[in-house]
Amino acid sequence: MSRIRLIEIFLIQALVYLVLWLWNDYVATLMTVLMTVIFTGILIVAIIAELIEKSKVPRSYFTFMIGSILIPVVVGFIFVTLMGGDLEWLK
Known about the structure:
The chain is mainly α.
């Protein structure tokens, strides 16, 4: 069995967020904000730990974390722009 590459993980993430935004913009907004905050916190702790003491964590981990922060934000921005900023739950 071959290893799944980062680009495949990012595409799967984007697909999940796309489906969420199409299904329910309220849930998608919550998930976008929550996952972005969670992944940002984990990344900050990992970077601080890496600066204090070098570890054998591969560079792909940090790339994955940055992608996991950016993908929901980009997908959310695209959908909010396409919807003209008119989210159903804000009415």
